Amino acid sequence: MRTEACAKTFGGRTVLSLPAIELAPGRICAVVGANGSGKSTFARLLAGVIPPDGGGAVLPPRAEVRYMPQKSYPFRLSTRANILLSGGGEERAEALMEALQIGRLARRRATGLSGGETAKMALARVLSRPCGLLILDEPTASMDMEAAILAEGLIETYCKETGCAVLLITHDLQQARRMAGDALFLYQGRLWEQGPAERVLFAPERPETRRFLEFYGGA
Ligand SMILES: Nc1ncnc2c1ncn2[C@@H]1O[C@H](COP(=O)(O)OP(=O)(O)OP(=O)(O)O)[C@@H](O)[C@H]1O
Ligand SMILES: [Mg+2]
Hints:
β2 (6-10) and β3 (13-18) form a beta hairpin. The two termini are 29 Å apart. By secondary structure, the protein is of the alpha/beta class. A 6-stranded mixed sheet has the order 6-7-8-5-9-10, with helices on both faces. The protein has a two-stranded antiparallel ribbon with strand order 1-4. It folds into 2 domains: 2-64 and 130-214, Rossmann fold (3-Layer(aba) Sandwich), CATH 3.40.50; 73-129, no CATH class. It has helices at 39-47, 79-84, 90-99, 115-126, 145-162, 173-179, 197-200, 207-214, and strands spanning 2-3, 6-10, 13-18, 21-22, 28-32, 65-68, 133-137, 165-169, 182-187, 190-196. Residues 10-11, 15, 33, 35-41, 70 line the site of adenosine-5'-triphosphate.
């Protein structure tokens, strides 16, 4: 799926300006970059939550997108009901709750869940149905390590089985290296480096990318 070139300006400050980007079906593309580099803004533009400068669409018409925001706000319903809102059906909802070990929370009101529990519920919701592009904005940031590994497996299986493109925003470099086939590095709202994950996340070409990776123990 090809995203259109797009930009976003807030209060006269352009926080994002990107060229067209090709997101391959059936592959996970990691998006990495410092705080404020524009990752979530890109996700929100793709999800249609905010419009790009000049209006218009960033994705092809009728692209089926599912989006897990960096911070999820559940509805004042049970956890199960929140997941069922996706329209994926009971069986799939139960299977995902089981897989993410939140079955015991099914009847609990979702507004009372912990941060990590809320993230598991939000992940179950987006994985409930197939789509063309799955956007995950730091899906495991508030999960414990066991939960994060379970979530990674579910995301990989979903990607393989549905053949959708996955855009995975993460600050967990090890996670990006484990999961991604491709990677984008955003720097000050620009697409600074892109390509196969083996290059961008292990042997980047540009000094800014190398410097970013140094804080994780180097390329
Ligand atoms: N609604 C808004 N109004 C004004 N500025 C905004 C708005 N949304 C985002 N920004 C600014 O745009 C820049 C990019 O923000 P964005 O949330 O995309 O960063 P990010 O890469 O996701 O960072 P993080 O790693 O902290 O999640 C930041 O400087 C932010 O302050
Ligand atoms: Mg963000």
